[in-house]
Amino acid sequence: MFKSKLAKGAVIVGSLALAGVANANGVVILLQV
Known about the structure:
Elements: H1 2-32
């Protein structure tokens, strides 16, 4: 039970980090244009 919760949390954190990186890249691209 605890392991699945941990895995789910890791997936959420990972997707949030990916979204943050993509968002930062989008901002950089916008600034370059």
